[in-house]
From TrEMBL:
One of its GO terms (molecular function) is rRNA pseudouridine synthase activity. The lineage of its organism: Bacteria, Bacillati, Bacillota, Clostridia, Lachnospirales. Residues 183-205 are annotated as: Disordered. It comes from the Bacteria. This is Pseudouridine synthase.
């Protein structure tokens, strides 16, 4: 167990906020967990996260040894779009789960990334989600960002929170969208009846905004680009379904029968743009459309 000793220099600031400034490698949420577990003491006594420090307070932070995960590295090929000492950007294939979950601890992107990075991953999201800043659904393909250290993770998580990360998706939806561009501004929450689904009609839904523009029209279908302003679970799938244009192949929010043989929704995270956590440079990564998606577009064009 690592022990860090600090002395408060000022008075009146919440202890979690004070410590997050002094201990930049520890996130505020992790510090709050340490406070809850009694691993942070002031003048020899455990305190809560809302404790306000007083000048001269002696603060002891005990950091437990990291848990040994049962999540094992696996030699699974990765389609790498970019990599340096701080971040890794991969093009996730269809059918791959991003991180382990109960009953599903192998063959995930995390298993593959653990093998590739040889343990050099941020630990902020715990043993099941090392390096994971955001996620995309199992049958959604495309750009995904991985952090190799806690410093990079904290900066990029804040970018995500402030909606300053660019995330543009390509999708094929049912129906002919009349307008060339549009915005869906509708809160999203857990479906009140079907707990596996999300809904714009849920009580206590969270603010969610999706911007879309038409790229091509095929009569019964429309090829679109969606840009996320927020990042709720299933956001694009729920929002497009809510306006009567569910994503082609979506087994949850689309029609029961799909006219094409597809493995889930035709949704691809094409463009990911971030401000690099070390250099401050804005960078964009473009994940090429997967073969099944390009082939389907060609088939729809031939049918016009």
């Amino acid at each position: 167990m690592d022990v860090i000793n600090l002395t408060a220099r000022d008075s009146g600031e919440r202890i979690d906020r004070f410590l997050s400034k002094d201990l930049e490698n520890l996130s505020r949420s992790y510090l709050q967990k340490l406070l809850k577990d009694g691993d942070i003491r002031v003048n020899g006594k455990p305190v809560k996260a809302n404790y306000k420090v007083t000048e001269g307070d002696e603060i002891q932070v005990c950091i437990p040894e990291p848990e040994n995960p049962d999540i094992l590295p696996e030699d699974i090929p990765l389609d790498i779009l970019y990599e340096d000492d701080d971040i890794l950007v991969v093009n996730k294939p269809k059918g791959m789960v991003v991180h382990p979950a109960p009953g599903h601890y192998s063959h995930t992107l995390v298993n593959a990334v653990m093998y590739h990075c040889k343990g050099r991953l941020s630990g902020i999201n715990g043993v099941l989600r090392p390096g994971i800043v955001h996620r995309i659904d199992m049958d959604t393909t495309g750009s995904l960002l991985i952090c190799k250290n806690d410093h990079a993770h904290q900066i990029l998580a804040e970018e995500l929170k402030e909606h300053s990360i660019t995330r543009r998706y390509h999708a094929i939806v049912h129906g002919n969208i009349k307008e060339d561009t549009g915005t869906v501004n509708a809160p999203i929450g857990r479906h009140p009846v079907d707990r596996k689904k999300m809904s714009t009609k849920a009580p206590n839904g969270r603010h969610a905004v999706t911007h879309y523009k038409v790229l091509e029209r095929f009569g019964d279908y429309t090829y679109i680009e969606c840009e996320l302003e927020t990042g709720r679970t299933h956001q694009i799938r729920v929002h497009m379904s809510s306006i009567g244009h569910p994503i082609l192949g979506d087994p949850v929010y689309g029609p029961a029968k799909c006219p094409y043989k597809l493995q889930g929704q035709t949704l691809h995270a094409k463009i990911l743009g971030i401000t690099h956590p070390a250099t401050g440079e804005y960078m964009e990564f473009d994940a090429p459309l997967p073969g099944y998606f390009s082939d389907l577009l060609q088939r729809l064009r031939r049918n016009l």
